[in-house]
Design goal:
Pfam families: LacI, Peripla_BP_3. This is LacI family transcriptional regulator. InterPro entries: HTH_LacI, LacI/GalR-like_sensor, Lambda_DNA-bd_dom_sf, Peripla_BP_I. Residues 1-53 form the HTH lacI-type domain. By secondary structure, the chain is of the alpha/beta class. The chain has three domains: 2-44, 434 Repressor (Amino-terminal Domain), CATH 1.10.260.40; 53-152 and 283-311, 3-Layer(aba) Sandwich (Rossmann fold), CATH 3.40.50; 154-277, Rossmann fold (3-Layer(aba) Sandwich), CATH 3.40.50. It contains 13 helices and twelve strands. It has helices at residues 2-8, 12-19, 27-40, 46-52, 70-83, 99-108, 123-132, 154-168, 184-197, 213-224, 238-250, 268-271, 284-300, and strands at 58-63, 87-92, 113-117, 135-138, 148-152, 173-178, 204-207, 232-235, 260-265, 278-281, 308-311, 314-316. β1, α5 (70-83) and β2 form a beta-alpha-beta unit. α8 (154-168) runs parallel beside α9 and α10 packs across α11. The longest helix has 17 residues, at 284-300. It is elongated.
Amino acid sequence: MMDVATRVGVSRQLVGLAFRNEAGVSSSTRERIFEAASELGYSPDIAARSLRRRSSNYIGVLFNPAHSSADDIVEALYAAAHARGYNLILGALTATRDERDAITELLGFRTESVILISPETPVNELRKLAKRLPVISIGRPLPQGVCSAVRSDGQRGIAAAVDHLVELGHRDIAYVLTRSLPEFAARHQGYVTAMDRHGLPSRVREVDGDFTEESGASAAESLLAEPVMPTAVVCSNDHAAMGLINRLLRAGLRVPEDVSVTGYDDSRIARLSFVDLTSVRQDPEEMSTAAVEAAVQMMSDQESAPQERMIVPTLVIRGSTGRPRSEAQLHPR
């Protein structure tokens, strides 16, 4: 900082004010300070700065890269946090790194609150964590009072997918159920309720394992082994839909000419031109803004009670759904 101050011809204190974005520095001087810092290869030590203050201005974020919507939510969280003067510390889950390890590391960075994207931590541990600092869960239904939560209305989202398929003329609609998905119960209920409302029989295929492409491929194998394929399949997330579509194509079936497929999350893979997947959009920007606002509110008022915010999802219709095949039955090839 002294090197920057010397080059610009100002005091070290003025350089500090500029980097803290505080008043007392003209716009022209601030620009000269940043230009000199860039030329000298200097950037402020954020960790050291946080130690000198009572507030670290850090919000910790726990996420699993395997979740189809995690990258969109993290990206939106950065914008929402920055708009309120906060920085993010990310904690990623891997095959050798569980949630407890990641959360412990986030706390070590003096985070003032933590946002957990689709956490699997037991409820009793979340309740203990929420007594230490504000905790906001994104995507997981939790008992009232455990911690603040933001999630999409999975029941309504899946029901919208079923309604869309029924409007196209489908009557034999299957559902891929993966219990490891944090919101599996609400999404499953949305399917059952919608099918009952239309007077149609439910056709659920529960698959073991996680919610990646393999679960969708496993569901496709199960459906292909049956005498008659459904005309449409509703998947509980985009990764499962991708795996199911790939396996159907390998079996010689066409999407959507033979089988229509829907996903959930409207993730980046759904938006790829060669995938063109009809999917339920959770609106990561709205969810992230709500999560950051909840964190900021609880940090400023530690007596505030945990709240749940429900985001209404929307169905994005693309090329993976169409009218049902004209044949009365389609046998797997």
